[in-house]
Amino acid sequence: MKPTLVLVGRPNVGKSTLFNRLTRSRDALVADIPGLTRDRHYGHGRIGHRPFLAVDTGGFEPLVKDGIVHEMARQAEAAIAEADALLFIVDGRTGLTPQDKVIADLLRRSGRPLHLVVNKAEGMDRAVVGAEFHELGCGEPRVISAAHGDGVNELIDLVLEAFPDEEEQKGDQLSGPPGIRLAIAGRPNVGKSTLINTLLGEDRVIAFDMPGTTRDAIEIEFEKNGRQYTLIDTAGLRRKGKVFETIEKFSVIKTLQAIEEANVVVLMLDASQDISDQDAHIAGFIIEAGRALVIAVNKWDAVDAYRRERIKIDIERKLNFLGFARVHYISALHGQGIGGVLGSVDKAYAAAMAKLTTPKLTRALLAVVEKQGPPRHGLFRPKLRYAHQGGSNPPIIVIHGNALDQIPDSYTRYLERSFLDIFKLQGTPLQIRFKSST
Ligand code: GDP
Ligand code: GDP
């Protein structure tokens, strides 16, 4: 489970500067995917072997009681409640303000692990800048400069110390329940709970773990057509009699966490509505996480031929970066099309976990290069020599050769498409990495 770090503080202390610094390297990885829309308040970060999710709560003003600012405060409060660690940012140049004290109270009361971060301290004496903030009662002040990067890695190292790193997590996953880990993601009211109830209907539920803390995701094991699945909740489900119902409002953080923990994500869209920014943002999270994906366009029963045509065009236009995923038109309410979705989930899982041997990959690579070589770049022509598999879910293909840093993105895309095609990997994205020996 990737820890979620939530950045909180009054406006202008440098939250978004820090957020951008933490998430920038991951940005570069997906920046060239045309059409991908992202929510600039949520992002992936990584320091060494430690990946995390970062949340920027924006302009947090707890004293305002209504209007749009109040709505932002409400969302910030939800993020605080769901945080694995809070980074409380204050401004070392302005010094301590009354508003900082109000926020400090609120954060202390949340009971979440809390780190006090004094920003904008480049060129200043750390001990002196930090001193006046002790009185906030939020622990030892950590002094940084988000703009210059001073102290940032040390800070994040310290914050992440409390959480298992990637290697430890891999061990955990092996001991988990068998079957496909599945998340159903989508904005409010697309029909997630309805689909979940249809899936879990009757006696298919094998085990249902109530979480030990609010932070633990609910996991539900169920069986269908002889296959086992573990559903990772994004909706805040509670069991009431035979059915599950949603007990909380839509949570971006829960959605992000569930996507991270899933093997395959079913992205639900509502056929009666146009594709919204929120749909595109969720799609962006799924791409960034590299998850296998199936798209389910729900409420197909409720729309006429005109609307059906329109939503198809809308998906092609606004979610064109999801071209690798199968699309199903379903009615969660009437149980129509669900079998097809699960069939595609199985295929996407198989593709995401495919084992590709070095000889097979190398043969495929050489054939693809033979058909169309990489463009010459100045004096260099990149030489692609062999390939091996560097990971699964998503499959990572590591290509070895010379001058590979000269390969343009368009050629990388061509390689991606070719490998997906040759190995018939339906429903998973694929990652290409280059290792140059010169
Ligand atoms: P937010 O409102 O908390 O998200 O703050 P921003 O990240 O937008 O930063 C507010 C202002 O502080 C901007 O003008 C930033 O350039 C500036 N700033 C952010 N971090 C630093 C820093 O480490 N040092 C200095 N001197 N300025 C900074
Ligand atoms: P969630 O917020 O994504 O969990 O959405 P819900 O499952 O609560 O559904 C929102 C609304 O859409 C409810 O009124 C459902 O009855 C309705 N709904 C869900 N699936 C379908 C469907 O397949 N067809 C129709 N016509 N309505 C649906």
Automatic annotation (TrEMBL):
Q: Which residues form the EngA-type G domain?
A: 3-167, 180-353
**What highest taxon heads this organism's lineage?**
Bacteria
Q: HAMAP family given for it? A: GTPase_Der
Alphabetically sorted, this entry's keywords are:
GTP-binding, Nucleotide-binding, Repeat, Ribosome biogenesis
**Can you state the subunit structure given in the record?**
Associates with the 50S ribosomal subunit.
Q: Keyword tRNA processing: yes or no? A: no
Name the Gene Ontology biological process terms.
ribosome biogenesis
CDD domains linked: EngA1, EngA2
Q: Give the matching SUPFAM superfamilies.
A: P-loop containing nucleoside triphosphate hydrolases
* Keyword Repeat appears in the UniProt entry: yes
- What is this protein's function? GTPase that plays an essential role in the late steps of ribosome biogenesis.
In this chain, GTP 2 is annotated as bound at: 186-193, 233-237, 298-301
A GO term, aspect molecular function? ribosome binding
What is the recorded name of this protein?
A: GTPase Der
Show the coiled coil region(s).
Answer: none
Q: By its UniProt entry, which Gene3D superfamilies does this protein fall under?
A: 3.30.300.20, P-loop containing nucleotide triphosphate hydrolases
What does the similarity note say? Belongs to the TRAFAC class TrmE-Era-EngA-EngB-Septin-like GTPase superfamily. EngA (Der) GTPase family.
